[in-house]
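Today's session is about reading a structure prediction critically. Students often jump straight to the picture, but the first step is always the sequence itself: look for stretches that repeat, for charged clusters, for runs of hydrophobic residues. Only then move on to the predicted structure, which in these notes is written as discrete structure tokens rather than atom positions. Here is the chain we will use throughout the hour.
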Amino acid sequence: MSVVILGIESSCDDTSAAVIRDGYLLSNVVASQAVHEAYGGVVPELASRAHQQNIVPVIHEALKRANVKKEELSAVAFTRGPGLMGSLLVGVSFAKGFARSLGIPLIDINHLCGHVMAHFIQAEGDEFDPPKFPFLCLLVSGGNSQIVLVKAYNQMEILGQTIDDAAGEAIDKCSKVMGLGYPGGPIIDKLARQGNPDAYHFSKPHIADLNYSFSGLKTSFLYSLRKWIQDDPDFIEHHKTDLAASLEHTVVDILMDKLRKAVKQTGVTEVAVAGGVSANNGLRNAFREHAEKYGWKIFIPKFSYTTDNAAMIAITGYYKFLDKDFCSIDMPAYSRVSL
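Below is the predicted structure for this chain, in token form.
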């Protein structure tokens, strides 16, 4: 009998639903929220309201595209955390009610684990070559920067992580300082393609072990910008491509330096990248260069699996279903948690 999993993701400002049958992705629907652009960042109250409006039509559309009736579902997998509590509560509450009405199991998913497991999403017509356990995964997003040793889908060890700001958060804040708009990551990425990555040099942290820090880079960028603007009030407009390229180059260099050390320490040469920042072209190019130079076997997700999506929740739920790893209906959402 087929195993059909509905995945629900609502950790931040994207409402998403996906359907997986026997490990194959049938649909992945994402509704984004443009309302936050005017505020330069996600407004939690507005995000939760938008989730309430989007969740029913998004799930309906996911089932429709998958050509699956709700009665065919084997279980409902949902993001339990981490994330914005108001946003999470919408997805968690709907998942509980929906599963209970159908009399099927609930599967709670760690959002960060879902990002790592995005490499195991299999769709008809796509080449499928997932990493083999154990592998290293650089998990980089707006809220997280971690190096993870993945021993199994349910056994992950954090080797290093940010002690302050995450890489994506630093890029977004530097973009905001430049007045480039929100979200900053894609804007910086686009501008960086046209600039000189060696035009400017910013502070790099000296942090022990495999941990990261990006607060110093952010401060260095801000102070440098202030000094340059004093000499030329239109400095940003005249040099924004070089600023973007130099900022991106610095962030990628910091990320890859610790990742090289992790590969050396563990001896693991199967290396993946995941999370929203994995959509960055500079980081993707750095991965390809390292694969060629150091003999790594690398795994880079499709762009549609880098940002928050329910496909990664559904595939993680599929593996947990096979192990009968279900959760009770009284499990609460959590806003903060590690792998």
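Discussion point for the tutorial: The mean pLDDT is 94.
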